[in-house]
What we know:
By secondary structure, the protein is an alpha/beta fold. The chain has one domain: Response regulator (Rossmann fold), CATH 3.40.50. It is 43% helix and 14% strand. It has 9 helices and 6 strands, in the order H-E-H-E-H-E-H-H-E-H-E-H-E-H-H. It has a 6-stranded mixed beta sheet with strand order 2-1-3-4-5-6, with helices on both faces. Helix 2 links the parallel strand 1 (39-44) and strand 2 (68-73). The chain is elongated and about 55 Å long.
Amino acid sequence: MVTSLPRPGGNLTGFTILVVDLTAKKLELLTELVPGAAAVALLVNPNYPNTERIIQDTQQAAHAKGVRLDVLKAANEAEIDNAFSALVERHAGALLLGSDPFFFSRREQIVALASRQAIPTIYSIREYAAAGGLISYGASVSALFRAAGIYAGRILKGEKPADLPVQQPTTFELVVNLKTAKSLGLTIPPSILAAPMR
């Protein structure tokens, strides 16, 4: 969409959230949190443009960790319900939720299902953990929204989008919902609790 991140060219600039690039790190955190999980499930939306890359990155990370990966797909509310039923049948010990705007819009449903099925789940952004999800790792969406507002102001004052670099996050939030961890009977490893923002 742009010529380069530092010099986007054309009439386009913006912010990237790097959710796909963090997939391997999320799987690492999840296996550290649930070390006994021989199988981890990945829930993705087949209609999301980055789904194939998310699947490939997660498969590579799972192979490196020596865990079986089950890929489940859901593109509507009913399919989300079905995917969580399949988690039980497949004996998945944990779930990595693929990044997707549709899933974000259904976060309360997803968090409730994860709680009902008692499945430790890692998400991409803190809003899931705030809604009762176990753990999230990713960029701060609110910080990106603020920065986008600043960019919009600069453009309205006459700067050209082509001259404004596409921004990438430099810090990532690791959020653990300790109440949810307790309800799942999980002890959060000190390495996760002491993890610096990175």
